[in-house]
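Dear support,

I submitted the protein below through the web form. The confirmation email said the job was done, but the results page showed an empty box. After a refresh the structure appeared. I'm attaching both so you can tell me whether what I see now is the final result or a partial one.
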Amino acid sequence: MKKEKILLGFDVGGTKLGIGLGTESGKILGEYRMPNVNTKPEDVLPHIATEARRMVQANALQMSDVSAFGISAPFPADAKRGIMLEPPNNPLWRNVPILEYLTNALGIDGTFENDANCGALAEWFFGAGKGCQNFVYLTMSTGIGGGIISSGKLVRGGAALSAGEIGHICVQIDGRQCNCGLKGCYEAYSGGRAVALRMREELADKPESMIMQLAGNDPEKVDMIVLEKAVRANDPYAVALWDEIALRNAQAMGILINSLNPEKLILGTLAWAVGDLYTDPIKKYLPRFCWKEPMESCQIVSSALRRDISSYAGIAAALNYLNESAQN
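What the results page shows now:
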């Protein structure tokens, strides 16, 4: 009987950092989470290496029993060398050679991938993308990112390895300012952070509005959760904004469907957290933005892994690394 591969995964986020230990079939053997706000890499990296070794030992394993590790991290980054360059939500992490550090600290091979690519790999191996050869995974939370599986392979792109930056396709010429520096990006209209900032701007002098009331007139509490509550209460401002977000989602997804002809679009956080209220308006508008044939052959589904995807992200990157290595 074939022995299952054991894999380690590291998920570096803007507010949290996670470690997962699991098998190639998707069984999670151990998990660890810690805050990652205003942290210094020189403090964090030794700590996560220690926690990873402890997790391996807690499963009566040695580090040599682990086939590989994977790092899921935000871009911009030097993916080939595994260096975190300027992650926007980790201001103290600049030019951090995380792959080299963990390779030396753990004594095993590893790989470094864009976090959205890792989300796609996780859904492919363990979630809603199992069995698919062509699909797109979209992160739908604070920002919007994407991972593309085409003809059974992860699409990384050219020299910059930046394929899948779907949140930054332009949906409006000279449109809203995006956090990335461009204007009119898809993320600037449908990303959670951008929508929250827009509501704070538009409702700053309207304390009587339902959204401000639901937020206790605290602008910092105006977010997608408050917006959803106001939509369900049929607040006119909230309903109109929600409709616009759905229209922009359909516009961007139509581009993907016509360009890539995927079997599935797998949608992250907002889609599974909100449900039909989020996805139904997108499906209503979608025929305006793509051809009937590729639209009808594409399923729009929510992530099967949901919030557990962070536990699988780095593990999936490690598994894909081993698979690609075996093919070369």
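Response: this is the final, complete result; the empty box was a page-load delay. The mean pLDDT is 94.
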